[in-house]
Amino acid sequence: MLYSKLCAASALTLLMAQAAVGQCFMCDEVIELDQAGATCFLADYASYEEALAGGAEFVEVDISCAQRGTTGTRGGVEVMPKLGERPIKRTVFTFDEAYLSCLRGLLDGMSDEIDPTITFDLAAQCQN
Question: Which residues are paired to 93 by β-bridges?
Fold first, then answer.
């Protein structure tokens, strides 16, 4: 009985802390992008913004639009990356409105092409 009350109190404390800070605990803070992923993010940005405007607290961002419509195989054999190219490990990220708009600002502020990848620490780079 005491254990269940303690768990309930802990969960309530976490929820109140999240509301007070306004931070998304399930959002990704560090992401890695290549040029194709950055282009995909910017192309799909309006749909993510619409989802947040519709009342969603967070959105799942899929940066694999460059690979959409392809199977990733050729004749039953996985397509190999080009020499010297390291594929991005993750292509789906979770963002709240603050991280989403911050990443957009970081990408808009870049003048050079991303080669081969860039890592963003949104927790550090998006502080107000």
Answer: 61
DSSP 120: E
CA–centroid distance for 121 within its chain:
11
Q: What is the DSSP string of 17-74?
A: HHHHHT--TTS--EEEEEHHHHHHHHHHHHHHHHHHHTT-S-EEEE--TTTTT--SEE
Q: What does each of the 128 residues of the chain score in pLDDT, given as a tens digit?
A: 666 655 455 554 544 444 434 568 899 999 999 898 999 999 999 999 999 999 999 999 999 875 554 445 555 566 666 666 666 678 999 999 999 999 999 999 888 888 888 999 999 998 86
State the Cα–Cα distance between residues 126 and 128, nearest whole angstrom. 6
Q: Are 105 and 125 in contact (CB under 8 A)?
A: no
Classify residue 94 by its DSSP letter. E
75-to-71, 82, 83, 116 alpha-carbon distances in Å: 10, 18, 20, 28
- For the chain, how big is the Rg over CA atoms in Å? 19
